[in-house]
Amino acid sequence: MDLDLQTRQRAAALGRQYQGAGTEEFLRAVIEDEFPGRVAIVSSFGTESALLLALAARVSRDIPIIFLDTGHHFPETLAYRDLVQRRLGLTDVRTIGASNRDRADRDPDAVLWQFDTDACCSLRKIEPLQAAISNFDALISGRKSSHGALRRFMPRIEAVDGLIKLDPIADWSPEQVEEAFEALDLPRHPLIAHGYRSVGCQPCTAPAGDAQDPRAGRWAGQAKTECGIHRAGRQVPALHAAS
Ligand code: SF4
After folding, report:
1. I need a labelling partner for 179 at 20 to 30 A (CA). Which of 99, 131, 161, 207 fits?
2. To the nearest 10°, the Cα dihedral for 189, 136, 15, 67?
3. From CA 119, how far away is CA 109, in angstroms rounded?
4. How far apart, in whole angstroms, are the C-alpha atoms of residue 155 and residue 143?
5. pLDDT at 3 exceeding the cut of 60
6. What is the pLDDT of residues 157-204, one digit of tens each?
7. 200 within ligand 1 shell (Cβ under 6 A)
8. How far is the CA of 44 from the centre of ligand 1 (A)?
9. Distances (CA, A) of 145 to 96, 127, 173, 215
10. Is the CB of 203 under 6 A from ligand 1?
11. Is the domain 3-242 a CATH 3.40.1550.10 member?
12. Which residues partner with 94 through β-bridges?
């Protein structure tokens, strides 16, 4: 059977099986039972990332966690990644990025973001992620429907180009997130104190202030609201390798 169709059927079956399951029950099931050794977390180590990582660490501190180092992150984010890793005892944080050769060929002066943010996100995020996930069947991320825009109607489980995408805290409200941060005594991203409510790359992130959409500071002034990594599935070569 075609891998894409197979994955869509699996996503639908998982949706039926875990409908109504609590977040921790769902996380334990996908990490231990459904995709043992074949699931990773993609984390930006942004303002709310520590919550999903803490919940996952209760199941396994050894789950692979992929962090895309675009070369344009705030230094505070890199320091926060290290702090969260230490505090939660995460053993397998994988920092990946574009190869030196690709950067030299396509963005030698690191200014592509000024002219073509889609091309920059492709070079520095989407392509490195696609290369890193060929050994996984499922990816977990911490997107939430409360973040609005394209995320408002997002499902907890979906299939994208041969990969299962899982968002265990998709339906958490901002109040639940805040309560959990307090209850679990999780460290806060240092840029929250400076008005940032969602943090990505430095050139493409501004403080969101009191805007209703916490991601309003991302690519502010552009139609772009997502970098595209959550639509990244398997590359064609990986498909061939698996067949
Ligand atoms: S968010 Fe901005 S700087 Fe980061 S990869 Fe995308 S365009 Fe480039």
Report:
1. 207
2. 10
3. 14
4. 10
5. yes
6. 999 988 999 999 999 999 999 999 999 999 999 999 998 888 999 999
7. yes
8. 12
9. 27, 25, 8, 12
10. yes
11. no
12. 66
